[in-house]
Amino acid sequence: MQLEFCLLLAAALFCIGIYGLVISRNAVRVLMSIELLLNAVNLNLMGFSNFLDPVGIKGQIFTVFVITVAAAEAAVGLAIVLTIYRNRETTDMEQFNLLKW
Amino acid sequence: MNLAEGVQVISFAILAALVIIAALGVVLLENIVYSAFLLGGVFISISGIYVLLNADFVAAAQVLIYVGAVNVLILFAIMLVNKKQDYSNLPGRWIKRGATALVCGGLFALLATMVLITPWSLESNAPGLIENTVVEIGKHFFSDFLLPFELASVLLLMAMVGAIVLARRDFIPDTLPTEDGIVTSLQLPERLSELESRELSASKSSEV
Q1: CB–CB of A19/B27 below 8 Å?
Q2: Which of A5, A59, A84, B56 falls between 20 and 30 A from B88, CA-CA?
Q3: Which of A3, A15, A28 sits opposite B108 (nearest CB)?
Q4: What is the pLDDT of residue A51?
Q5: Secondary structure in 3-state letters for A58-95
Q6: Which ipTM value was assigned to this complex?
Q7: In chain B, what are the domain boundaries?
Q8: Mind telling me which residue stretches traverse the membrane in this protein (chain B) (predicted)?
Q9: Interatomic CA distance for residues B32 and B25, integer angstroms
Q10: Contact (CB<8Å) A68/B83
Q11: Do B54 and A54 touch (CB under 8 A)?
Q12: Rounded to a whole number, what is the distance in Å from the CA of B48 to chain A's nearest CA?
């Protein structure tokens, strides 16, 4: 198993995540796409940590931090979606114009 | 990891195929509940890849945090926000999808060429792998990564308080004192949502 396979898989996952981020109209699905993006970054970090720095595993440390921030982001993001749904009765991204003008 | 090279390659290929298929399902399926369950499949497959990459602690943390916490949270949010909506009534929807797919495919081609033509300096005589990654990660956390570790705990506390404040139900404050005495907050009416209050003010102005 080589480093290139790992990086290619991470690149594919990242592109799928960006595609979902742009086209999806349900706000919960946008948050799920963001989780995909963060996992692609984690995969890159782990690949570099294993193949280029196998003794001082700094990549795994950074992955733990990224997982922490992702958990916090998911909690706050879903709370925001819930509040918007309670106020506007929709989760459609096309109808969110709270910050417009 | 003392598996044979062929076994590692085959396991990696199976896990990578699972990741890609499940991620495409997350993005493309219409029903969002299926998407949420497939997201759990993506996380578990990525955890298997971490095991192949000699990172047992992070693989366990991935399963515990992502599948056990984040995915369950997403499922709860889907159940709370579950309202049938028709998302297919936007003009130019397929143009938007095609342009996005084109851009994403171009980005993948760019990244793939970059990965393949870069000479990564992989030394063949690497020193021996660490047996116990938990001890090593703990040493890093409490020596050279102590400040980010503490900041992460503060960040988690801030996120928890913020999520509670945002998702909490608001009550109308001026109905608190009644003639019956003290009312528990469970019996208080909920604050009107934005649409309801707008309708209410519209009906009031039409009466006047």
Answers
A1: yes
A2: A84
A3: A15
A4: 87
A5: HHHHHHHHHHHHHHHHHHHHHHHHHHHHHHHCCCEHHH
A6: 0.92
A7: 1-83, 129-168, 174-207
A8: 6-29, 36-53, 59-81, 101-122, 145-167
A9: 10
A10: no
A11: yes
A12: 11
Residue B171's SS3 state is strand
- Distance of residue A16 Cα from the nearest chain B Cα, in angstroms: 7
Residue of chain A whose alpha carbon sits nearest to that of B37: A32
Are A79 and B26 inside 8 Å of each other by CB?
A: no
Which residues of chain B have a pLDDT value below 70?
Answer: 1-2, 88, 123-128, 170-194, 208
**Phi, psi for A89 (deg, rounded to 5):** 65, 30
For B192-208, the pLDDT digits (tens) are 666 777 788 888 887 76
Q: Which tokens belong to B67?
A: 């599948």
Take residue B6 and report the two structure tokens written for it: 């062929």
User: How many angstroms away from the CA of B79 is the closest CA of chain A?
Assistant: 11
Token code pair at residue B2: 């003392």
Residues A21-51 have pLDDT tens digits of: 999 988 999 999 999 999 999 999 999 998 8
The CATH-assigned architecture of domain B1-83 is Up-down Bundle (1.20)
Residues in chain A: 101
> What's the mean per-residue pLDDT of chain B?
85
Question: In angstroms, rounded to a whole number, what is the distance separating the alpha carbons of residues A35 and B48?
Answer: 17
> What would the pLDDT profile of B85-97 be if each residue is shown by its tens digit?
777 677 788 898 9
B interface test, pick of A21, A55, A64 with most B CB neighbours within 10 Å? A64
